[in-house]
């Protein structure tokens, strides 16, 4: 499975854990809702900067988003 | 300091620790040397996929690249 697809699943999990809608996360992060949706479906590859923005919105460390993705990738 | 600038410094540190030239890291990663140079100078924002490729080339976990960047950002 492509890394951005795995990352998208991780992003969705963290968002749902915090009971946030895509709309709410997008607003918090100052991003467009459709961009959140595209990332969650693995259709967009977030940059390092976007990863930091998403993590801040989810109130977690950026490296946690990446390490969960690693684990799901079997690294 | 911008996140991509901090990331670039972290990337350069890991590359130098492994005594790799930009040329060598680019070859290992299948990336262009100029792209490595641009990232190290904070002129490009790597995507999640490129972060995984760089980490594989450096033989470290992608989350380590991100956590070192976090620390330098004071997170």
TrEMBL record, chains A, B:
Keyword list, A-Z: DNA-binding
CDD domains: HTH_XRE
Domain HTH cro/C1-type, first and last residues per copy: 11-65
Domain of life of the native organism: Bacteria
SMART domains in the record: HTH_XRE
Annotated InterPro entries: Cro/C1-type_HTH, Lambda_DNA-bd_dom_sf, TransReg_Diox_bact_type
Gene3D superfamilies with a match to the protein in the record: lambda repressor-like DNA-binding domains
PANTHER family: HTH-TYPE TRANSCRIPTIONAL REGULATOR (PTHR46797), METHYLPHOSPHONATE SYNTHASE (PTHR46797:SF1)
Protein name: Helix-turn-helix transcriptional regulator
């Amino acid at each position: 499975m492509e890394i951005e697809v795995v990352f998208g699943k991780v992003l969705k999990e963290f968002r749902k854990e915090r009971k946030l809608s895509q709309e709410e996360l997008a607003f918090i992060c100052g991003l467009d809702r459709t961009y959140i949706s595209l990332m969650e479906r693995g259709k967009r590859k977030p940059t390092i900067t976007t990863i930091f923005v998403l993590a801040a919105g989810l109130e977690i460390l950026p490296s946690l988003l990446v390490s969960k993705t690693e684990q799901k990738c079997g690294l």
